[in-house]
Amino acid sequence: MLGNKKKYIVNGNSGIRAQIQFADQKQEFNKRPTKIGRRSLSRSISQSSTDSYSSAASYTDSSDDETSPRDKQQKNSKGSSDFCVKNIKQAEFGRREIEIAEQEMPALMALRKRAQGEKPLAGAKIVGCTHITAQTAVLMETLGALGAQCRWAACNIYSTLNEVAAALAESGFPVFAWKGESEDDFWWCIDRCVNVEGWQPNMILDDGGDLTHWIYKKYPNMFKKIKGIVEESVTGVHRLYQLSKAGKLCVPAMNVNDSVTKQKFDNLYCCRESILDGLKRTTDMMFGGKQVVVCGYGEVGKGCCAALKAMGSIVYVTEIDPICALQACMDGFRLVKLNEVIRQVDIVITCTGNKNVVTREHLDRMKNSCIVCNMGHSNTEIDVASLRTPELTWERVRSQVDHVIWPDGKRIVLLAEGRLLNLSCSTVPTFVLSITATTQALALIELYNAPEGRYKQDVYLLPKKMDEYVASLHLPTFDAHLTELTDEQAKYLGLNKNGPFKPNYYRY
Amino acid sequence: MLGNKKKYIVNGNSGIRAQIQFADQKQEFNKRPTKIGRRSLSRSISQSSTDSYSSAASYTDSSDDETSPRDKQQKNSKGSSDFCVKNIKQAEFGRREIEIAEQEMPALMALRKRAQGEKPLAGAKIVGCTHITAQTAVLMETLGALGAQCRWAACNIYSTLNEVAAALAESGFPVFAWKGESEDDFWWCIDRCVNVEGWQPNMILDDGGDLTHWIYKKYPNMFKKIKGIVEESVTGVHRLYQLSKAGKLCVPAMNVNDSVTKQKFDNLYCCRESILDGLKRTTDMMFGGKQVVVCGYGEVGKGCCAALKAMGSIVYVTEIDPICALQACMDGFRLVKLNEVIRQVDIVITCTGNKNVVTREHLDRMKNSCIVCNMGHSNTEIDVASLRTPELTWERVRSQVDHVIWPDGKRIVLLAEGRLLNLSCSTVPTFVLSITATTQALALIELYNAPEGRYKQDVYLLPKKMDEYVASLHLPTFDAHLTELTDEQAKYLGLNKNGPFKPNYYRY
Amino acid sequence: MLGNKKKYIVNGNSGIRAQIQFADQKQEFNKRPTKIGRRSLSRSISQSSTDSYSSAASYTDSSDDETSPRDKQQKNSKGSSDFCVKNIKQAEFGRREIEIAEQEMPALMALRKRAQGEKPLAGAKIVGCTHITAQTAVLMETLGALGAQCRWAACNIYSTLNEVAAALAESGFPVFAWKGESEDDFWWCIDRCVNVEGWQPNMILDDGGDLTHWIYKKYPNMFKKIKGIVEESVTGVHRLYQLSKAGKLCVPAMNVNDSVTKQKFDNLYCCRESILDGLKRTTDMMFGGKQVVVCGYGEVGKGCCAALKAMGSIVYVTEIDPICALQACMDGFRLVKLNEVIRQVDIVITCTGNKNVVTREHLDRMKNSCIVCNMGHSNTEIDVASLRTPELTWERVRSQVDHVIWPDGKRIVLLAEGRLLNLSCSTVPTFVLSITATTQALALIELYNAPEGRYKQDVYLLPKKMDEYVASLHLPTFDAHLTELTDEQAKYLGLNKNGPFKPNYYRY
Amino acid sequence: MLGNKKKYIVNGNSGIRAQIQFADQKQEFNKRPTKIGRRSLSRSISQSSTDSYSSAASYTDSSDDETSPRDKQQKNSKGSSDFCVKNIKQAEFGRREIEIAEQEMPALMALRKRAQGEKPLAGAKIVGCTHITAQTAVLMETLGALGAQCRWAACNIYSTLNEVAAALAESGFPVFAWKGESEDDFWWCIDRCVNVEGWQPNMILDDGGDLTHWIYKKYPNMFKKIKGIVEESVTGVHRLYQLSKAGKLCVPAMNVNDSVTKQKFDNLYCCRESILDGLKRTTDMMFGGKQVVVCGYGEVGKGCCAALKAMGSIVYVTEIDPICALQACMDGFRLVKLNEVIRQVDIVITCTGNKNVVTREHLDRMKNSCIVCNMGHSNTEIDVASLRTPELTWERVRSQVDHVIWPDGKRIVLLAEGRLLNLSCSTVPTFVLSITATTQALALIELYNAPEGRYKQDVYLLPKKMDEYVASLHLPTFDAHLTELTDEQAKYLGLNKNGPFKPNYYRY
């Protein structure tokens, strides 16, 4: 919960793949749910989300008809109509995207191969609610290859790639999702996944907790047959822990968000690349010689600092935690308070998971052309609201780039309106998506096959051995050759030759 | 001449600045001029250049009328019609772009400031032929502020920003340029700059040598009054040296391409950033753990290697020069022959300035999904022609990204069709444009004010002191504080306190 | 237990401080205690330990008399004779060493300052058994300043700095230790610390577990008054866990070896420096361009790899754990099996904590002049015994450097006979000693002041808040300024403003 | 001449190789010769030089008799007595050192091999005056293998390794040198090399210019037969240029000091390593988190900055040259004036080649424990003389380490009394010695074989092709594989396939 959390944007459309920039507003809203009105609010489309939506590149369906998919009669080539997508005819485009994604997700493909004999998910009936992208499609088709039946809805009203949804529908997956759903559509789609005659899910794969919430609310009896929940997001995990604390969690749940591979690889290594990518795509700035302050030296901050230092920036760090602060020192960064450097820096980057780290007072003192952006976990880190005052002029100079202009002419360059830079302005490496998807698949297998009693009605971390297995499935990509322990060595170390190789508290 | 050379693409339009991707085909053609047919060919628009042109982002003039600017009657607000641009009404948009560029070119602004008293270019009549961008506009208006009169044409039929041209015309500069000129337009524009009643240039600022060529061919007598030529491109410099060798150079010329600041900063530091940017924007790949071979360890290669190593790639280097090879070793790169690693690498990057560095044989042996791109000086490094054979299928997956597919399904990812990646797929940092523009301005001042006899009819490098001056003008950007020699120290070192500080052969 | 563990050598003597190279043999022996004969063996002085001992630099006592300290009658200036050191007259020299060390241990000095009012160790009677160095002296005198009474023996028969022991005795500390104790001396000294008329310890500070073992064996009743044990070494901690497992641990014990600051800072940051130092001091080799294989990518391996990569070496990594392996990949290292690169590398470094990682077979295949060394946790990693065969010639070329010569003339350069390089051939930064000593002091304070029931008869890690406190005490050294949470932020994060700031499972 | 210049110390003795720390006082003296008294001064042994001498490790001759070698009657095993060394009986020890050095100087060994057929130095009579070390011995024996006759003296009264000199004498080289010569001995030895019945040198290999000076002064007629001088040191080159300027240079001279391989590899890459080594060996400090200011960003400064940044130090740079200053900025260093950071830094390193860069005023303002050292070219950079005032106390805490203590107790840690740190406190990598020795050999071959008229009575740089050849001879050490140009490529580039590959002004 404290760890910095990144989410991703997705690629892909037909012909020319393009970058989708969808607002992370829904996720962020869910993060701190209010009791009343949450549902109605969560689907409202704010000005900013519309804006970022419209800046997405062209799609094959950009000139599509305006008919709601719910009103269309569509069948796939095998005659099934158990799906609801924008346009089933886009299936071929989507298939190509999926094929390209397959090439970049060797771990899932390896799982499929290993499952040719045994079907570890035979009999599993999985209902899923995630972003629907080419990478998700590879996951779903892998689950299918492992023996599972799946039904799927989207966890975000903007993020569905219609062509991919079409391709999945065409190949027989009951998918209920399209880009630009209304809130009502959103819940309707989820309901269509679970409320089926003669089919009842026994596994849940969720991203954000909305699917889980819906079943709790509408079909609590379903939990009797459900063997477990796999949840990927900070928000969803937070909600599961709350349920558990309240004694209301009635099936085992697997927290895949806090797995080692996710935390260490997603946050550190991906941010190391996406900070550069996000800044370049929005500002075309040169990094060499720039003075940068990075607020927060967790995994995300470490990644940002390492990348910018490597590119020749001079990096300052702020921290509240003395241990992380000492790490920053040893890594060669001056540890300062934001106030001490705010007048001189060229870039301010927040990675704290905290709120109001950059205040109006800081913004007032920044120098002309200072760039301000957020790599943390939500849109709270920069007090953007404080900039919406009459004396300041906002000028949108590019998609995701605003100049906020002070009366004296000073301009601050605000990226993504303070939302996540890496979500809004860069792409997420397939490598990360692959790690996450593989972890999800393994978590499903584990929960589905676990002997009675191994998991209780609680939230679990992935067993270390599975974390290690996820990692091992990604090594061939790098032509990396693992060493095996000899019997003698394993005995000396008191380890099983196949792992796990570290105690649970190992820090990596 | 051997040094790797990079060129740039330009940014900017009204409202939303966007990336222009124009073919570097003309430059490349000029590089090795054939005797016959060169002129007609150089303006022909090939399939590929049209393609990359069409991928440029939207412009205010995208919905413009189709009338040729040559057929339009336009006046600026002061009543002048001594210009020819697409649409004078776009002047306001262009002005904003220029103002933004001014913020990023403090060195030129400092030159303006210092010239408030003396006008070092008073009386200068400069005819220019360069890319017409916001940055060029800042240069031109600086030359104006220094006392010069200017007339300007474009050195590339695609690269003109119409809004900027309009803004320049509006503020009184006779500009003859628009995006999408025909070859006939191209020469007509140049001619309109030089063939003027009652005005004769006494300085030339050229980029590529076409303007110089035109005057040589049509108005050789003009050289009597011309004090010098300032040339920026590899190509143009090559042509000047040829003229000089042939005894036909009749005025002094300044080679600004080989200045220290250009060579060391442009090539090393900019490529360090643009290789990452270019690869990310085209492929969204993750750098960590990737195996890369970089062909050539000159400044460009050094920059590419440093960046990729810093991002966690494993980098191999090929070299022909044992000194550069030994540098690669000491910098921590395995020095190999391309054949030795071609089967295992994920990325091949050429930075040699040579031809056929990557041959069909290499391409045949690459592994699936290998990315191939060129950071060198022209489109010769990768033998792309060898890929245009019937058994291979080309698939355009994105702008600037082709999959070339072998009969067995292997795909090679070819970027920018083997043309310069940094020109085609990334942006050029304003910092570099600023260094180049400042160097051009100082070269003009030097040639214009040089006492009789300092420069003969030859090609000169910028005096070291001017190189140092260019550098010093850029230090304030970094809030960098230079130390001054004491009298005692200057005496001890045998130096003038104001420089130059190094012998000419110093290598930096 | 798996984590790589480093120990240190110490500096200092009078006038010219010098490097002590004592064998880590005792520690290593203790690591895997055999049931019988352990005691007699553990003090025997092997050929190798004598050798490294004799290579230590000159000391003020080198020309000392040969009388055993046990046979001497000595008094300090206050008339006390409750100590046994080599020569009380060396006290002044030792005092200067302590004063210099004080300058480098600001955290302990800060603890003294804060304790001026309250004495958190008032009433504490601490018996200690550690290396006796200037840094330990600073710790002991800090404990004294905090209110404790101390009695001290050495945990190693070679490592005592006689001058420092003298200085401590002079200022009133009952110290029983000298360099070159016999095994009988060793236990006699320990016994003199605990077996005192009218004084009984209530706290134990141990390094290796010998003191604890002695009390268990000889004076088990003492544990009734003992509030806790603080243990610093891998070995000692291992023994405590065994006691605990066997239900024989009768007081709470604090494992300071696995504290975050120790693990992350000592292993990663110190090894990053000591690998370079150790290799340089022994071989004067150049790092640039060298091919190196590092076995193991834990914290120690990460430090070694980062340093060598930064110095221009080409680094390969071997790993058994797929997660660490994937980290190596993402950090830019080729992951290989040792066999794959053994013929080509210039240096082999082990950091695994495992045994027989480098076998005779590997050694046979190494190229001429290959350097082999161990940075792991004991002398097991390289199968040195396999090199003691008739056909191989050993040639000692420097202290700690052997050439092992094959019949064909091939030479392998073996450092420190396969014992720890950083212990034998480099120095340990005071920074690390400071972190460890501060952690020990805080652990003593915590155990001594803990309310009844907080700690049971078990082995505990230092509370995270104390880890954070240790870190915070070291920040002033770096002029580092920590940011404080606002009330609003603390509330938002659900944290106490003073920490702890992270959940226990946080990985840093 | 401006370039920073490093010199080296040498390793090796019999049995246990050890580090020699000889004063660079003589070199430094020569640098700025005064007119009167120079000779008598240059040989006087100051307190400090004695000190560093005495700190050298033990030698086989440490217990030698005190008889001057000039008074001894010695013969080698072949009966020759045409030499003068300390003790011919040490030859065997020396031979072993030479054999070890041969393993590390593959380039010279390759030259020997290639010379098996042709003897490019057949007929050459070379008189040499250099440091006499194992590496020099490899050079001399290589010259012999190439056909030359050699006679040799030492260029420094301290640096001779007696065992090596003995080994050379034993194998028939007339060597006149021992460690601890008096000034009179020094010139006597040189004279014995050149003033020989029936033998007259035709080539000079000098280091520092003393040999050249002696011949000029005593035997000017010898120059009639001398084909050229090869000079390696800054000082010697400086003197040659002065001779040339004065029209007094009567033979061609080759300046090997300014060759690319020497400048770029010696200064940049070696300093990158020796700065760390020198600081560690003297102070055992930890680099992580330390604030460092490096004065001067030439090659030496670049090396120091890169190394310290890589080890986690925070590095500031001072510069007088705006181009180097801009490089520092782009490389990620804050460019400051020394005054701005002097109060906060932990380390001050000078690399300027200038004088009084660190003044008493700076020293007064440094914080307690600040370390001050010099990596530049002489002992002028730090105003050490200003510290020799009554109110300051000097305390020698280790060899090469002084604490200078202010009245308020502040201590400054001065290394090597302000002389070159890398000369005094670290070792020089054999790699550099190998490059230099190979360059010297090739320069001798070039001058000796050059056709009449190629070289005039002037000072020359090594032809680029030879620089490239030196580099190529070192590539096999790194198992580096150079790519060869195809005929087509060579033609395209206008290059000879065998080089040279770059224009003379190329900066690398």
From TrEMBL, chains A, B, C, D:
Residues 32-41 have a biased composition (Basic residues). Residues 267-428 form the S-adenosyl-L-homocysteine hydrolase NAD binding domain. Binds 1 NAD(+) per subunit. One of its GO terms (biological process) is one-carbon metabolic process. Pathway: Amino-acid biosynthesis; L-homocysteine biosynthesis; L-homocysteine from S-adenosyl-L-homocysteine: step 1/1. Keywords: Hydrolase, NAD, One-carbon metabolism. Its cofactor is NAD(+). NAD(+) binds at residues 298-303, 319, 422. It catalyses: S-adenosyl-L-homocysteine + H2O = L-homocysteine + adenosine. The keyword Magnesium does not apply. It is an enzyme of class 3 (hydrolase). One of its GO terms (molecular function) is adenosylhomocysteinase activity. Residues 42-61 have a biased composition (Low complexity). Substrate binds at residues 133, 207, 232, 262, 266. Its EC number is 3.13.2.1. Residues 24-81 are annotated as: Disordered. Belongs to the adenosylhomocysteinase family. NCBIfam families: ahcY, PRK05476.2-3. This is Adenosylhomocysteinase. It comes from Canis lupus familiaris.
